[in-house]
Fold Phosphatidylserine decarboxylase proenzyme.
Amino acid sequence: MASLDKPSVGTSTVKWRFPDIHPEGRKYVLIAGAIALVSLFVWDFITWPLVFLTLGVAAFFRDPVRVTPQGEGLIVSPADGLITMIERVDLPPELAGPQALGEGSMLRVSVFMSVFDVHINRTPITGTIRHVIYIAGKFMNADFDKASEENERQHIIVEDKNGQRIGFTQIAGLVARRIVSFVKAGDMVVGGQRVGLIRFGSRVDVFIPEAYGVEVALGQRAIAGETILARKGAPRAAGIAQ
């Protein structure tokens, strides 16, 4: 099991520091930096643009520490970004059935990640990974509703100790070209633990069970591993067909 991001206990002063770069992205930072260095001796007029590109790649793969809320019945956001859709939809075929999330429709909360957002994705609950289902597809704008059916995507189902299953889907976008998974079926995960990333702009859909009330609103910004998307037993928000 991966190490957790936990707050320190004690009297020490907490200081801000630059976020780490995730290992998955370090090779891209090195490649961009090497090209910028070579350009200094060959095409010096593009050196500064390449330096800024290198800094941009480093920022894209940043991996900040997160402190996940503790407690029963919480679903936290698996992604940084903007809440762009909260609506009831039919379950994707890969998430339907008795061995998955059941039949019929569920409330879906969509978090859109721009290229400026952190792209490390985290599990919304503590439990066991039951399914990791990858599907090849297109690379249309992830903000389009039909991207959930046609784009490259990966479904993940996590089951908690009480048997409650939560499904979420990583969707590649117009610029994103690869979904990278850090987990597999059978792995134990703790709420807020890193489970994967999507390179360069994308979306994550979370399917909310009937017993949960959504606690975010359209246009709100979510922080992966910290923002509570839904809470078990919470009142259902007015204006949302839950």
Observations:
- The mean pLDDT is 83.
- The chain has two domains: 20-63, 74-232.
